[in-house]
Amino acid sequence: KTGVVVAGGGQAGFQVAASLRQGGYGGPVTIVAEEPRLPYQRPPLSKTYIKTDADFDSLLLKPRSFYEKNAISLRTGDRVVAIDRQACTVGLASGGSLAYDHLVLAVGASNRVLPIAGNALAGVHQLRTAAEAERLRAGLAGAARVVVVGGGFIGLEVAAALRALEKQVTVVEAADRLMGRTVSREVSRFFLDEHRKMGTEIRLGAAVAAVLGEDRARAVRLSDGEELAADLVLIAAGVTPNDQLAAEAGLETRNGILVDHHMATADPRIFAIGDCAAFHSPFAERIVRLESVQNAVDQAKLVAERIISGAASLPPYRAVPWFWSDQGPFKLQIVGLTAGADHVETAGLGEAGKLVAYCFKGERLLGIETVNRPGEHMLGRRLLAEDLVVARNEVAREGFDLKAHVA
Ligand code: FAD
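That is the input. Now the predicted structure with flavin-adenine dinucleotide docked in place:
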């Protein structure tokens, strides 16, 4: 048996290897991981890791002994550079090749590089990897004024963390609201107010034209000519999926590696999971690519089961999508894919610092966005998993109780 080769040692790559062993897979399992580190969690990078002196080991998904005990061969610091689908082998950056029965592409995504002058100056940072977080942490020591480019989850998490360190923080967002791709206007507005109360300056509808500086960044210039002084600049302008390797092997890509309801590409030996995979979601009724731990873990588990059982009859991927983002004292949780909502009912506005937003498309509940209301979030997961119907006019009624509805 030539076994399973996993390209990528992030959340999804780790999980598929672990689940293969947990499910009793007996063949060789090899993870080829570009980063020269054991697989680790990214979520703390933008929340706690940059504002504390936490050890890298605190991020590890499992200690080294786990891989030895489970006979998972981990080739860190190496990269899959080519796929030969006829020969069923992958080529490695270190030279040589590995044969596979099944290949799992768990190659993640890369930070979008803004095509602006000065984007490579010293003092300009990105945040995807632990190494980048450590560079950012080191750079913060001598920085009083920070400009964050991008008002999405990561930019805002970092902004809140830096306010806790008493940095002067400005967030520049090109759209007219925060987290515009992922949350409703109601939740955007809530966070706009709260970040301003934390002391962060937020510029909406502001496009960045250049980073200015000779040897190192000293300011950010907006497209209207205004200059914002900065000792450090973080570019958090989203990611693009790492789908080139698959495309070069003749596999279809559509903002991500296109896969079916079992995360298989058109080549039945090759799967794609996590941030790099584009799939049809029943929760959006279109092809999506999701960037979340839940998505990486659940897709990995399904692929492990599929490889072990070989069963084309397994039920299709149908895990309820959920997300979280910690911004200062506020825990935002989202269940469902709420981007296409055309009607939002909010509740809990009476209670300071809390919010529940029910997002509908027509009469259909797409999902629920909550702030510091973990109970409703968990109920929302059940609601969507069990396909329970909740009507708009019920939710709108004074004193609507989700718990009573789900029970
Ligand atoms: P990744 O974790 O990106 O792993 C892919 C790995 O593959 C990388 O290590 C990459 O170097 C490697 N690789 C790429 N190409 C190759 C190749 N050719 N050969 C070998 N290796 C290769 N999600 C949440 O749900 N909640 C959060 O609060 C949250 N916070 C986040 C904060 C930050 C700062 C970041 C960056 C992400 C956050 N996410 C969060 C998203 C979450 O971490 C990702 O969705 C998840 O890591 C995706 O896992 P993945 O394995 O698909 O990709």
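The radius of gyration is 22 Å.
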